[in-house]
Amino acid sequence: MKNKTVGGLVAAFPNSGPRTRESRDSQFERIVGNSVGLETVLKQVERVGPTHSTVLIQGETGTGKELIAQAVHNISPRCNRRFVKVNCAAIPIDLLESELFGHERGAFTGAIAQRAGRFEAAHQGTLFLDEVGDIPLALQPKLLRVLQEQEFERLGSDQTHKVDVRIIAATHRNLAEMAARNELRSDLYYRLNVFPISVPPLRERREDIRQLVLHFVAVLARRMGKHIELIPEPTIDAFIAYHWPGNVRELQNLIERAVIESDNGVLPNPLSTLHANTKPAIASRSVLRDREAALILETLRATGGIIGGQQGAAVLLGLKRTTLVYKMKRLGIFRPQQRPMGEFDEGSELTI
Predict the structure, then answer these.
(1) Domain tally for the chain?
(2) Residue 101 near residue 151 (C-beta atoms within 8 A)
(3) Is the dihedral of CA 90, 93, 96, 102 positive or negative?
(4) Based on the number of CB atoms within 10 Å of its own CB, is 352 exposed (0-12), middle (13-18) or buried (19 or more)?
(5) What is the DSSP letter of 156?
(6) What is the CATH number of the domain that holds 217?
(7) Which CATH number fits the domain that encloses residue 90?
(8) pLDDT at 204
(9) What are the E-state strand segments in 147-290?
(10) Is 11 inside a domain boundary?
(11) Nearest of 296, 90, 58, 100 to residue 192 by alpha carbon
(12) 128, 137, 193: which is closest to 167 by C-alpha?
């Protein structure tokens, strides 16, 4: 296993193939995290990346779906070709067909010249269709055709164009439910869902938050020419306890605000200044302690009481063994030698 840094997430993944450490670091650039959930995603990326198969990336807004798409492209045979991005939700419906497939001069009012679309721009490369669930029903048959046959016509033309494009799609919607409601063609759904990758929300990978905070603080402080010497532990605890409806994107934006507002080299807690109607889930110190203890106990049960080693609780929690032991002592978690393996209690001295 090795660690790599990708987009404010540092993730561990197994070696595969002849790629060097340096090439991997560049291929998975900007992803940061050590959580089991992120490691699972990156293993899927490494499996499907070298193929030409269509990939469907699913996840909530702000989880980093575009970074995962870029990572798939970076380890694909098309990595030296273009990675073309289209946000299907950001383009007006009446312009989306022209944006994807291009148009001929005079095809519609304002079409004063011939224009190639994104499919042509991505020829022999990768086309990333972000928010693919927002493509209107009327346009879906044409998209299905180019996915299946790799051919299309520009708007206002009868001439067929052949392309060689790999499709990576992403959405925060449930496409299966959309297909059941006839909001998405079922044949298009099956064609997109060749290799699904589900990106977990930040609240399901809280063990990555500390590392993300350190990453974003370093990047943003350097960009702004500020020097942050201290991130108080209560601020880190508040970040870990918060529910993050906006996921990693929200975390990055709040860190940027905190860096701007920092004085004397200390990072302030931006969650404390959120407007009351956002209802941030900032827990009290005692609640944070209980949550941390519960997480450690759950992990110890899952590992059968093993703390160190590759299968131990410390690795699963993203901690050093000595750090986990310290936390267990601080929280009063102990492991009685006489108890059956997997049973743990709180409130007494740690026994190793």
Answers:
(1) 3
(2) no
(3) negative
(4) exposed
(5) T
(6) 1.10.8.60
(7) 3.40.50.300
(8) 94
(9) 151-153, 160-162, 166-171, 195-198
(10) no
(11) 58
(12) 128
For 241, other C-beta atoms within 10 Å of its C-beta total 20
Q: Are residues 54 and 185 in the same domain?
A: yes
**DSSP-derived 3-state class of residue 203:** helix
Within a domain: residue 44?
Answer: no
Residue type, position 101, single letter: F
pLDDT per position as a tens digit, 37-83: 999 999 999 999 999 999 999 999 999 999 999 999 999 999 999 99
**Helix spans in 112-200 (H):** 118-121, 140-149, 175-180, 186-192
d(CA 193, CA 170): 10
What is the number of alpha carbons within 13 Å of residue 187 lying toward its C-beta?
A: 10
Torsion region of 295: left, alpha or beta (phi above 0 gives left; psi -120 to 50 gives alpha): alpha
Better-scored residue on pLDDT, 280 or 285: 285
In this prediction, residue 170 carries a pLDDT of 97
Number of H helices, E strands in the chain: 14, 11
Residue 328: CATH number of its domain:
1.10.10
Which residue would you say has higher pLDDT here, 337 or 35?
35
Cα–Cα distance for residue pair 231/76, rounded to 1 Å? 39
User: Domain containing 108: what range?
Assistant: 49-198
Taking phi first (over 0 means left), then psi (-120 to 50 degrees means alpha), and beta for anything else, what does residue 254 get?
alpha
